[in-house]
């Protein structure tokens, strides 16, 4: 079997109702139609029975002596045991990072860049292994891990490697005498007007979510290392395996011990990092609720004499606006990409769809037709579009919102269940949710106001551009938005009035390491990526 999708006639398959190996949960072909042959990923990945903490360049057993299980969400199998870092373990990691700091910061910038280039190249060389591991650990389709997550992670290290020897040019400042260069100034030198090069912050504590494990690690580590900082990284407890495989890569490229330390664990581990007095910078991506707690903790440390920088990338309830002059078929693909990508486990997911009233019926009809072709099933099958929900707890949260949506009067549509042919039952093991949408949604409904973080779309209509803007901005979040129209002037006028950090025009969920990403209001503050993302890791 090749890696390509191979269509074979449904009549040549086994009798109707018989499950095709590797395609459990996939929508069946219509009578006389066509189906995809199974295309399982065949790369074998070795997973150790137990993983320790990565501190000072070595894997060490936790002083807490505690471990927890890492679960494959597609079948509920235990993949391995992970060390749970306690307060003493976090302290050891921070001390290792602090000890490595002066030498790493003093390293010639082009030499630092070489380490980042090596990390990027090793990620590329081990890309297939990392993609399989990411899918097994998190439940996302292998095509997304292979084609999006892993390549983007490598790109971030490549991109930031280029900044290592250019930091003095990154931000405007006073002119360097005789050169015309504008270096930045430290706070101590601003009153004197003395030009000085930028300096690193110190030890950075970085806490990442479970939806894009390796990519989020790259978002955090690459700019910090490029600026001369050292790091203590805590991956999410449900998706730690690619971060630990990244630790192996750091050993392979001979990164100086202590420059990057990786500690696994749940919320308590992250709390120890946030509260540690020697951590000078916290970068957090996750829920708004946890972000508020971290903000309070950092503010308290500042009030007690500390000086802890903070960037937060939190939740979102992003609007996707379709005007009547948009290319409808193109917009349909953008809607699908915006909300059903990665099972809706995306902070900037286009979970609120606003459609011009005159084309609402057409959009709903085409969208439901397109959703019937989305294939839910085994994440390691290359034909799969919708994988498994990341955890049992997250699946319960999604189901709670689905119940609330129907109870409040919205109409739930699950295209695979509303078609002529009933789909097979979902697999008996694993965490699964069919992609769906709600119509007859009011702005006051819970599903229109709160982040669900699942494959659930709330559809609403508007009559005028002003109404679309008002409804789109009627949210405590401000992370991202999408605008679909064939009129360039309208596109930029609407984008200018939307209160969101990232706005896509005639596309959605497109990322580049040179482009800053971040939000406003309860979606957080600070930027990651681009030259703007360097600011939080430098003394300016």
Write up this protein.
By secondary structure, the chain is an alpha/beta fold. The chain has two domains: 50-314 and 530-539, 3-Layer(aba) Sandwich (Aldehyde Dehydrogenase, Chain A, domain 1); 319-420 and 429-512, Aldehyde Dehydrogenase, Chain A, domain 2. The chain has 15 helices and 24 strands. The protein has helices spanning 87-106, 109-125, 127-138, 142-161, 213-226, 241-252, 267-275, 288-303, 328-339, 360-371, 392-407, 415-418, 446-449, 465-473, 488-497, and strands at 7-9, 34-36, 50-51, 53-55, 58-60, 66-71, 78-84, 199-200, 203-207, 230-234, 260-262, 281-285, 309-313, 319-322, 352-356, 411-413, 436-439, 456-462, 477-478, 480-484, 502-505, 520-521, 524-525, 538-539. The longest helix is centred in the N-terminal third of the chain and has 20 residues, at 87-106. It is globular and about 65 Å long.
Brief synopsis:
This protein is α/β, with parallel strands linked by helices and 540 residues long.
Layout of SSEs?
Layout: E1 7-9, E2 34-36, E3 50-51, E4 53-55, E5 58-60, E6 66-71, E7 78-84, H1 87-106, H2 109-125, H3 127-138, H4 142-161, E8 199-200, E9 203-207, H5 213-226, E10 230-234, H6 241-252, E11 260-262, H7 267-275, E12 281-285, H8 288-303, E13 309-313, E14 319-322, H9 328-339, E15 352-356, H10 360-371, H11 392-407, E16 411-413, H12 415-418, E17 436-439, H13 446-449, E18 456-462, H14 465-473, E19 477-478, E20 480-484, H15 488-497, E21 502-505, E22 520-521, E23 524-525, E24 538-539
Parallel strand pairs: 3-7, 9-10, 9-12, 10-11, 12-13, 14-15, 14-20, 15-18, 17-18, 20-21
Antiparallel strand pairs: 1-2, 4-5, 6-7, 8-24, 13-23, 16-17, 19-22
